[in-house]
Design a protein that fits this description.
The structure is a single chain. The chain is about 40% helix and about 20% strand. Strands 10-12-13-15-14 form a five-stranded mixed beta sheet. Helix 20 links the parallel strand 18 and strand 19 (about 610-615).
Length: about 650
C-alpha cells in the first residue's frame, strides 16, 4: 500500500477510506464484519495475524469455524449472534481455533449493526488473543486455591485474618479444631473474645494490634479461651498486612496451642529443681561430714593440750611450751579451714586493690621454686602490656601457691610448671565450660603442668568441697573449692582443662580494672608494740570470752577501754559525751548490727576510726558486696576471725598512729 500524502495540494481522503486504513493497520485485534447470518464479509491484518487466515481464504465463510467442535455442537455461534441482535451487543471469553488447529483464549465483542431504519445489516466483531493473560490468571487462581487448601488443611495452627479493627474475616480448619468455633460462628466477631477477662480488662488485644501496626509484627504467649470456656496456653504471631501503597488492610494471625509443651517444660523445670535440691543436700551432707571430721580432730588436739596444761600447772610443772605450741597450731589450722570454707561460700572478707599480675607472679618466683622443688622446672610466660585487675592480692598469692603445689603433686617424677598471663577481650560468653565468662576485658592467669592429669569423673568434681584424690592427711579437699569461691567472689571465672596422662591447666580470668598497684605490706603490721599507748577504744562484742580477751589485751598496752555486749549498749555509750578514738566492733551483733552501729557513730563523730571484727563479711555488706575501706571511708579497717591478739593490737596501734 502506497504512503498517504499529507501535502496541502493533495485531495483529502474520504472518511470511509481513512476508517478502513485505520482498521487494516490494527494488528493486535481481529476486526471484521459478519452479515446477518454470520458470514465473514471483511478481514483486517490483526485477524490474519493471530487466526492464520488471509482475506481470500475466509471472506464468505461462516465465522463459526473459529469455534471449537464442542461450542459448535452446543450452537454457541448462532446463540451469540442472536443475543447481539436482540441486545445490541454481546461480550464473552472462550477458546477459539486457528487455521492450524491451535487454540487460543479470546476476548470477544459482537456489536449489531443497523441502518437508520433499524434494519439489521450485520455484525461488527472484535476479537483479542488474551491467552497469556488467562494463563497468568489461571496460575494466580491455582496458587490462591492451593494456598487456600494449604491453610484450610493445616489443623495444628489457627490461621485467620482480621480487618484493621480486629474483626475476623476468615477462618481455617485448625482454628475451628483449636478454638471450637465454626466459620459461621466466628467470622465477623472481634478476636478479643479469645482472650481472658483479665487480658481484656488490661486491653491486651488492642495493645497487640497497635504494636503489630507500629512494628509490623508481634509475638506473644498467654492464656486463650475456647468456645466452651476452657483455657489453653497459646503461642501467637500477629503480622500487619498492607497494600502496595502501604495502607493497612488488616492483620494475619497465627495461633498454636502449646499447652502440652508448657506443661512439659514446667515439669522439666520442677524435675531439675528437685535434682538440684537433691544434689545440694548431698553436697551439704558431704560438706558437714568433712567439717565435722576435721574440726573434731582439731578440737581433740586443743582439748588434749589444755588438759595436759592443767595437769602440769596443777602439779607445779612449767614445761608446758610444747602443749601451748600444739594448741596454737591447731587454732591456726582451724582458722585456715574456716577461711577455705568462707572462700567456697564466697563470704570471706576480701580486700580488693589494684594488682599487677606480672609483678605478683615475678615476686613469688622464689617461693614457688622452693615449694615445687628442683625436680620441677618453672617457666614464666608473662604477657606484655598487661592490664591491671582488682582483687585481694593475698588471696591471689595463696591461690597461685596452692596451684603450684597441686601441680607439683601431680608430677611426682618431676616435670614442667608453666605460669602464663595475658590480656583477653571477650565479645560474648562462649559455650562449653566458659559460659560464665562475662563479656569485656579480662586479665588471664593460667597454670599448666605436665603431670598425670585427671580422668573425666575426677575433673567433673574438682571444685567440690572435701573432694580429693590425695591420701588421707595430705589434703583437705578445699583448695580448689576455695579458689573457685575466691575467683567468683572477685567477679571472675575459672576453668580446669585436663586429660589423663597429658597434664592439667587451670585458667583464671579476672575483670580489667584501672588503678595503680600499691605496696601492700602494712608498715605497722610487724612493728614492735610501744610500751605505752594512748587513746580510748570502745570494744563491742557479744561473745563474752572474746570481749574479755580483747579488753585485757588493750588494757595491758595502756589503752583506755570501754566495752559493750551488743549494739544497743554501744549506741548508748557513743551518745554520751565520752571521748572515743576507735570503735572496734563485731559485725554480726544482735539488735543493731556492727554496720548500723558504725553508721550511727559516724553521724555523731565523722572522724571516728572503725575496726570491724568479723567471721565473714556478709552482714557488713552493701548490696551483697564485701566490706572494704571504700565503703565507710579511709578510717575503716577489717580483721577476720579468729583474731590473733598481736595482729589485733598492731592494727589498733596503726589506726591510732601509735606505731613506727
Amino acid at each position: 500500500m502506497s504512503a498517504v500524502s499529507t501535502d496541502s495540494d493533495s485531495e483529502p481522503l474520504p472518511e470511509e477510506l481513512r476508517f478502513r486504513l485505520l482498521v487494516d493497520s490494527v494488528r493486535d485485534y481481529a476486526i471484521y464484519m459478519l452479515d446477518p447470518k454470520g458470514i465473514v464479509s471483511s478481514w483486517n491484518a490483526g485477524a490474519q495475524r493471530f487466526k492464520g487466515y488471509d482475506a481470500a481464504e475466509i471472506i464468505g465463510q461462516h465465522y463459526s469455524r473459529f469455534y471449537t467442535d464442542e461450542d459448535r455442537a452446543a450452537g454457541l455461534p448462532l446463540q451469540n449472534l442472536a443475543i447481539a441482535a436482540a441486545e445490541g451487543r454481546f461480550e464473552t471469553e472462550g477458546w477459539r481455533v486457528r487455521k492450524d488447529g491451535g487454540r487460543f483464549w479470546a476476548s470477544v465483542v459482537i456489536d449489531a449493526i443497523r441502518d437508520e431504519r433499524g434494519r439489521l445489516l450485520g455484525f461488527g466483531k472484535v476479537t483479542r488473543d488474551i491467552t497469556d493473560r488467562k494463563a497468568a490468571q489461571d496460575a494466580l487462581r491455582q496458587s490462591e486455591e492451593r494456598f487456600r487448601l494449604l491453610v484450610q488443611g493445616v489443623t495444628d495452627y489457627a490461621i485467620f485474618m482480621l480487618d484493621p479493627a480486629g474483626h475476623i474475616t476468615n477462618w481455617n480448619s485448625g482454628a475451628q479444631r483449636m478454638k471450637g468455633y465454626s466459620a459461621a460462628d466466628i467470622v465477623g466477631q472481634h478476636f478479643s473474645r479469645f482472650y481472658t477477662e483479665e487480658d481484656r480488662a488490661a486491653e491486651v488485644p488492642a495493645r497487640a494490634l497497635r504494636t503489630a501496626e507500629r512494628e509490623g509484627r508481634i509475638e506473644m504467649e498467654g492464656w486463650r479461651l475456647r468456645k466452651d470456656g476452657s483455657r489453653f496456653w497459646a503461642s501467637v504471631v500477629i503480622d500487619a498486612i498492607r497494600d502496595e501503597r502501604g495502607t493497612l488492610i488488616g492483620f494475619g494471625k497465627v495461633t498454636r496451642d502449646i499447652t502440652e509443651r508448657r506443661e512439659a517444660q514446667i515439669a522439666l523445670d520442677e524435675a531439675r529443681q528437685a535434682l538440684f535440691q537433691a544434689q545440694k543436700m548431698e553436697a551439704v551432707g558431704q560438706l558437714t561430714g568433712g567439717i565435722a571430721h576435721d574440726f573434731n580432730n582439731l578440737l581433740q588436739a586443743i582439748g588434749g593440750s589444755l588438759e595436759l596444761l592443767e595437769r602440769r600447772l596443777a602439779s607445779g610443772r612449767t614445761d608446758v611450751g610444747k602443749y601451748v605450741a600444739a594448741t596454737r597450731a591447731s587454732v591456726d589450722r582451724a582458722a585456715a579451714l574456716t577461711q577455705r570454707l568462707l572462700a567456697f561460700s564466697r563470704r570471706q572478707p576480701l580486700r580488693p586493690e589494684p594488682v599487677d599480675l606480672n609483678a605478683l607472679v615475678t615476686g613469688m618466683r622464689d617461693l614457688i621454686d622452693r615449694s615445687v622443688g628442683e625436680a620441677v622446672e618453672v617457666a614464666l610466660e608473662l604477657g606484655d602490656g598487661l592490664w591491671t585487675t582488682r582483687a585481694d592480692a593475698n588471696q591471689l598469692e595463696n591461690a597461685l601457691l596452692n596451684l603450684a603445689i597441686n601441680a607439683r603433686d601431680a608430677m611426682p617424677e618431676g616435670g614442667r610448671l608453666t605460669i602464663a598471663t595475658g590480656n583477653v577481650h571477650v565479645e560474648q560468653p562462649p559455650g562449653d565450660g566458659n559460659a560464665g565468662l562475662k563479656p569485656g576485658d579480662h586479665v588471664m592467669l593460667a597454670v599448666t603442668d605436665t603431670g598425670v592429669g585427671m580422668p573425666p569423673d575426677v575433673l567433673s568434681r574438682a571444685f567440690e568441697p572435701f573432694f580429693t584424690t590425695k591420701p588421707i592427711g595430705q589434703g583437705t579437699g578445699l583448695g580448689l573449692s576455695q579458689l573457685y569461691g575466691f575467683v567468683h567472689q572477685s567477679d571472675g571465672h575459672i576453668r580446669i582443662d585436663s586429660e589423663t596422662g597429658r597434664g592439667t591447666t587451670v585458667t583464671i580470668w579476672l575483670p580489667r580494672r584501672d588503678g595503680t598497684p600499691a605496696a601492700r605490706p602494712d608498715p605497722c603490721a610487724t612493728a614492735p608494740l610501744p610500751t605505752t599507748a594512748r587513746g580510748t577504744v570502745l570494744v563491742v562484742e557479744d561473745e563474752a570470752i572474746v570481749r574479755m580477751l580483747l579488753v585485757e589485751a588493750l588494757t595491758e598496752q595502756g589503752f583506755s577501754v570501754l566495752e559493750a555486749e551488743d549494739g544497743n549498749a554501744a549506741a548508748a555509750i557513743l551518745a554520751s559525751a565520752q571521748a572515743i578514738d576507735l570503735l572496734a566492733t563485731d559485725v554480726g551483733l544482735p539488735g543493731i548490727n556492727g554496720r548500723q552501729l558504725a553508721e550511727m557513730a559516724r553521724a555523731r563523730r565523722p572522724d571516728l576510726k572503725v575496726l570491724f571484727l568479723t567471721g565473714y563479711a556478709y552482714n557488713a555488706s552493701v548490696d551483697g558486696a564485701a566490706v572494704d575501706q571504700s565503703v565507710f571511708g579511709p578510717n575503716t579497717e577489717l580483721l577476720g576471725k579468729p583474731i590473733r591478739i598481736d595482729a589485733f593490737l598492731a592494727k589498733v596501734q596503726a589506726m591510732l598512729g601509735a606505731c613506727g
